Amino acid sequence: MATGLASIPLLLAKLWTVYPRLWTWPPIRGVAHLLERVSLVPLVGGSLFLLFSGLGAIARWYPYPFSFPPAHYAAAWITLGALVVHVGAKLGATRLALSSRSTELLEERAGSASGGLTRRGFLVTTIAATGLITLTTAGQTFRPLARFALLAPRDPRVGPQGFPVNKTANRAVAARATDPGYRLTVEGNVAHPLSLSLADLRALPQHQAVLPIACVDGWSASASWRGVRIRDLLGMAGAPHEPEADVISLQEPGVAYASSSLNRSHAADPDTLLALEVNGEPLHIDHGFPVRLIGPNRPGVMQTKWVTKVVVR
Ligand SMILES: Nc1nc2c(c(=O)[nH]1)N[C@H]1C(S)=C(S)[C@@H](COP(=O)(O)O)O[C@H]1N2
Ligand SMILES: [Mo]
């Protein structure tokens, strides 16, 4: 997220310096030149799409009919491909420019003669803009900079129990989560399916782990979680060797992020917990009461809240 935001002034500066070349005449000087110019469409279009749709996404602004993550992912591959083609096509020119100081001096003179920014002034302005954006946004993941995070849409210190909530519990979820009949079931490919009440879960051996929620929206927050190890539960249920599992919430099935899956290493990790407590308190309803999944090396979207079912594969 930080590198994406820092890239915005860099990309704008780059486009500013090269856009006059769009109007060069003749527009096409042969096949190689044609290919190079055609490759600018995915390169420039892809870069602009990635940075500005990403900027929109962290402000939760999705003004298009398609889904953001797959489109962002596909555009990243296209842009990378176009970048490789572009760097290849410009290798000769780059080498030439880097080996002669004369172009730099010429441009320096041209810049000051036209009354515009000098090359040095332009670079300093661009670097300063990039630095300022980084300083005023990085605080949403890097706590020491939190008080400078004026441009960050999320403050990782604000929220119940000291960290943010993206998705609050709606009325239906809250009703199911606080129902005394709540059960956590472990089923699927197991020898003895389990059905545990909240009291049963609290009576099992508890483990503690300090782990971050790292949301792909650009914020992250660490907390100390306490609860039951997934691998203990899978062991109690008689799951096969090296199991995988789906973790399912009390939300309506099909709602985005209502479930997540644990691969073999996530399921086996001693720090992958069904957490009952955070920072010494029972989970707030908006943090996933009664039980949330939390594990190392998983993006925030996979730390499923309001867990009610573990289906072993
Ligand atoms: N059941 C459920 N769990 C969920 C979500 C959700 O929408 N439903 N949101 C996820 C996302 S995107 C993140 S970043 C983390 C932290 O989100 P929170 O701030 O809403 O707790 O929880 C995850 N767990
Ligand atoms: Mo997220």
End-to-end Cα distance, whole Å, is 34 Å
Percent strand: 15-25%
Order of helices and strands: HHHHHHHEEHEEHEEHEEEE
**Bound heterogens, unique:** the ligand Nc1nc2c(c(=O)[nH]1)N[C@H]1C(S)=C(S)[C@@H](COP(=O)(O)O)O[C@H]1N2, molybdenum atom
The helical percent reads 40-55%
Number of strands: 10
Q: Overall 3D geometry?
A: elongated
Largest sheet: 5 strands, mixed
Cα Rg: 26 Å
Continuous helix count: 10
Q: How are the strands of the biggest sheet laid out side by side?
A: 2-1-10-5-6
Explain what you see.
With 313 residues, the protein is of the alpha+beta class. It is built from 10 helices and 10 strands. The chain has helices spanning 2-18, 31-38, 40-58, 68-99, 102-113, 119-137, 171-178, 198-203, 230-236, 264-268; strands at 184-188, 194-196, 207-214, 220-229, 245-249, 259-262, 273-278, 281-282, 292-294, 307-312. The strands form 2 sheets. Strands 2-1-10-5-6 form a 5-stranded mixed sheet. Strands 3, 4, 7, 8 and 9 form a 5-stranded antiparallel sheet that branches. α1 packs antiparallel against α3 (40-58). Bound molecules: the ligand Nc1nc2c(c(=O)[nH]1)N[C@H]1C(S)=C(S)[C@@H](COP(=O)(O)O)O[C@H]1N2 and molybdenum atom (MO). The site of the ligand Nc1nc2c(c(=O)[nH]1)N[C@H]1C(S)=C(S)[C@@H](COP(=O)(O)O)O[C@H]1N2 has 17 residues, from loops.
